[in-house]
Automatic annotation (TrEMBL):
A single BP term in Gene Ontology: establishment of competence for transformation
Protein's name according to its UniProt entry: ComEC family competence protein
Domain of life: Bacteria
Chief location bin: membrane
Amino acid sequence: MRAVASLLLNALRDKREKTSSATELPADLRLFIPAVIAWSVLAAAGPHWSFTIGAALISALLALPAAVFLCRRPTPIARIGTLALIATFVLCATATAHDLRRQAGPIPDLAVTHATAALTGRITEEPRQVPSANGSGALYVALMNVETIEHHALSTPVATPVRIFADHRLTHANWGDTITVRGALRAVPAPDKAVATVSRPNALQVHPSPNPILAVATHVRTGLSQATHALPDDARGLVPAMVLGDRSQQSSSLVEAMRDTGLTHLSAVSGTNVTYVLLGAAFLMRLIGMPRRVRPFLGVAAVALFVVVARPDASVLRAATMGTIGLVGVSASRRGAALPALAAAILVLLGFDPWLARSYGFALSVLATAGIVLFARSWSDEIADELPRFLRWLAPLVAVPLAAQVMCAPVLLLLSPGIQLISIPANVLTAPLVAPVTLGGIFTAAASLVFPSLAALCAWFPGVCALAIAFVAHGLAVVPGGTVPWPAGGWGAGVFAVLTVVALFTAPAWRRLLEVVCRHGVFAGASLFVALFAVCVPLPGGQGAQGWKFAACDVGQGDALVVRGDDHASTVLVDTGRDPWLIDACLDALGVQHLAAVVLTHYDSDHVAGLSGVVAGRKVERLVVSAAAEARGRPAQITRIAQSAQIPVEKWVMGSEGVWGGLRLRTVWPRSEHSASSNDGSLVLTAEAGGMRVLLLGDAEELATAAVRRALEGSGQLGSFDVVKVSHHGSAHVAAGLYSDLRAVVAVISVGRRTLMGIQLRR
């Protein structure tokens, strides 16, 4: 481990005496800025041909006068602008060709009519398990590139990507294998790389690829999986995932802990793996005295072999490219070439697969690589200067993940609400363990080809290191205050990005301030640290209030009601308010760290906008939504949060219910997926917990509350409630006589101070 760290340190620091940062040449942005502009245009365009063809034509028309202007006045801005227009034209034209090619043939039209057809093609994304919507057995998904479609005895050659959802039969297919499926086609809402889907096909046949290289790669993957069979559960799941991207054996608890601590990138093939493959190959070539001229070619061969074994889909190719560039970027002799190489990689990868333009994984890879290229070397030097000589080898192990994390943070906010402060120490603690797992796992996989018994013994070395990573993930996942709430969505990410840029530009001033403080003694420095920690990290809520069954959170204008069964694990939150900070603080005060369900009665912002504060640092088992509200369209923010936190979504209508440890929740309204208005599409719920009965009316108005009154009267529940949550923040627009007929002991109105709806009740 220390030897690998020394290699990385040597790459980060020049063998000669370190030059002053003031004399260091600025990063070359001449190609990087045009590449980012072209990428942004392609992402905004779709990439659907109807948009990309327009963008290509516009950029082509503008590029000609820009080139003329550049010839007359060759200024840096003119050069960057011209390159940006040319890059945009090339990417958009390529994307247009890709999209027209994938939509050619009968599949798009057949998918609209749900026609049944037989498809034959190659697997281009390895099958993975996904949650089943109705719980009817395991479900797996894979992407296939259809080469032939047969419909009504007519066979047509095509080149169309189709996503397949099938049972365990799909697990027998590997990347590059040919499969034949027969089933009903379904259209895919844009934007999506796949043109159509086939769910649970009637027939599925797998034909293994005759390519001997792919056969050996499959054997290597199987050998590594078998070699790790005797390891503890977490190690058995992590080693294949970290080495070859095989996450099939990871437990749900480990996946959740890795996600909560910002370590998810370790359980997939990333640029870090490729970096260590290159470093390991360089170490071996130096050890055996390989000529310098041969080393680059053998390094490329090592990466290519690794890519084939890890499956050469788009994500692995992206990781290989970025990992190679990242290593070039921290090299003392090649640093100037790293940023232009990154720009070229962006253009090449987007030309190869235009759908990467909208991929969060691609954005995170680019940002992480840019962070390493721009900051890792200088930060490593600064950290090394502050460390004792015998600990300076730790500097790059801290600087590299820190630089990547800082650059990725704004995009991570789009995926996971809240700022994961705990991810920085988690990545720093696990950084020294990634190389042993990667290189040890590769050696184990190679040994499994010849000596399976030796491979099983060798697997314990990466296995022990993987166990240490799992220990860090599980340990830090339960640290209070590890995730600080932050506004979700583009606005929150944009604000954080601006703050990050300001912090990076003002870093020297902050450092001078810290030096001044430290000169006045350790106590002053410790006091500053404690003050900053107190401001940035909220104190945990301890055990929270005890003995409660129902609570209404003060979230200002909006609803956020909490009902608890026998214990905290049977707690349900109904609506979230609009402020993530307020709902997070309320749940902390109640001691709620686990929610059996979060119910969103409808999609008004004062009922759902606080969801990011709910899921930050908490386990949420399911998200329950109104079927009527869902029919009107789910906000993109809700979908993004649910997907990033891997929370399954359930649609409820009248009669839907859930039972969790003494808590029973039942839906009284809506009757169907159709409603006259958004408010009348609200879920109306009854809750029973510990002998207490609660009626939660959401924002239901006259039509809905009249139907609720009739339903309760028909079932004999009309006067049986102890607590009623008054509808629509105290609005008078409810069925006449509703509250007098309910005869509840307590009425709860959740309303903002400036909202006038509560006054209407006085009428």
